[in-house]
Amino acid sequence: MLAQARWRTSTLRQLSRRLYATEAAVESSLSSSTPPPEDPSTTPQRDQGERRDRRRRDPEGTIFIRPWDGIQSMTEAFAIVQGIEKKYGKIRDFKLKRDVDNNDAYQPYFWARFRDIESFNLVPQESTTLQIRVPLVDKTKEGGVGLADLQGLLDSSDRVTTEPSVYQSVAARMTSEKEGEEDSWRLQDVRIERTTKSIYYNLVYEYPNHGRGYILGVGQAFSKWGGFYQPPLDPQTEQQEQSSKDTPLHSTSAHAQTRMRRAQAKWRTTLESARPSHPKDETPPEENSEDISALQAEGVQEESTGAAAEPPTTPEVLVATPTPEPEPTTPVAPEAEVTPSVPTPPAPEPSKNFAQTLTRRQRILAQAREHARAVPSETPPAEEAEANLDAEKKAAEEKDKKVLSMKERLWKLMGIGPR
């Protein structure tokens, strides 16, 4: 339960960070079609016991805005807001919402609220249409809308009481055509009407109430941020930047990138130190494990070489390697055969069964030696010798039984009874 409560708290904080305190959140889910202004008397009322996490603002002073061609970009939205402010007065807050089906586009309408009731009273009772100049935006521009495109549109505008005359309007249009400004602007028809719709605002905490989790969340988002978009310079400007070191772009761009990387690295270090440490199984480092494996391999190699160096139970005669023949003038005595220093046991009988018994005995003794090296012997040497002799006797008896059974089979095949 505690983990679930923490997850809910962190989710609400992440959602609240995305919203501004002055942005309105419309209660009903909006579709791409144009909805008519709603009357709060027709909307279902909630029970008094049911509480909401969003603050409600009175619908007084709220207008419904719908551009004829929709909202193509953020620059058009700010230009429309400025045009309404110049006509009626300053707007307190507004909010643009993304389209439900296409997240890259905006919904073609929004609500706004005036700062004072006098501005709202200037809006006609019936719907009206305004022609507002909006900037043209190149949709193929790399990086999208930037801060340079929003210059002059972010500040609120005062109401213009005196409308320009026809002569002033024609003169301004001719001047803009000569300067080439007409190609960057167009006229947009915007429909405006009063509405009594209640607007709800998400509850946004003030900065002093933000806890450690909120601050770490902001730091995590900042550490993953790639920075502002910087479009590439044209060749002429880039050449000027390289030739002149006193230009503002040349002196500040590299320095700003360095500061950005340092700040992000600092936040990453802070986030790493703030993570809760969970106990984990301590594993030895790789170097120690490699050393241990190397030592084990050396031990196995020593055991194998030791087992190979042990003298065999059967006598072996080592033939000397032939040496180059000396000169004919120097007589050389024939070399004697080299024999091992280990005392040789008596020569075995030239019987096949006896040679096979010795070979099996040799295997049993080798297994006993390996077992003695691997596990320390807990039995006394006398008992070990007896056990080995018993094993040898059992092996010899089994061998004799096998030989007898083979003889009996041979007799049956030849049609002779056992003797």
Quick tags:
42% helix; alpha+beta; 419 residues
Describe this structure in words.
Among the domains are: 20-43 and 51-202, no CATH class; 357-373 and 382-419. Helices cover 42% and strands 10% of the residues. It has helices spanning 2-17, 74-87, 117-121, 166-179, 212-223, 235-243, 248-274, 286-309, 352-374, 381-414; strands at residues 54-57, 62-67, 91-94, 110-114, 128-135, 185-194, 199-202. Strands 3-4-2-6-5 form a 5-stranded antiparallel β-sheet. Strands 1-7 form a two-stranded antiparallel sheet.
In short:
Residues 332-341 have a biased composition (Low complexity). Residues 26-61, 230-355, 367-400 are annotated as: Disordered. Helix content is 42%, strand content 10%.
User: How far apart, in Å, are the first and last alpha carbons?
Assistant: 90 Å
Tell me the quaternary state: single chain
Structural class of the helices, strands and pairings?
Answer: alpha+beta
Strand order of the largest sheet: 3-4-2-6-5
Give the SSE string.
HEEHEEHEHEEHHHHHH
Point out poorly predicted stretches: 19-34, 36-53, 247-251, 284-292, 307-320, 330-342
Region (Disordered): 26-61, 230-355, 367-400
Biased composition (Basic and acidic residues): 47-60, 390-400
Biased composition (Low complexity): 332-341
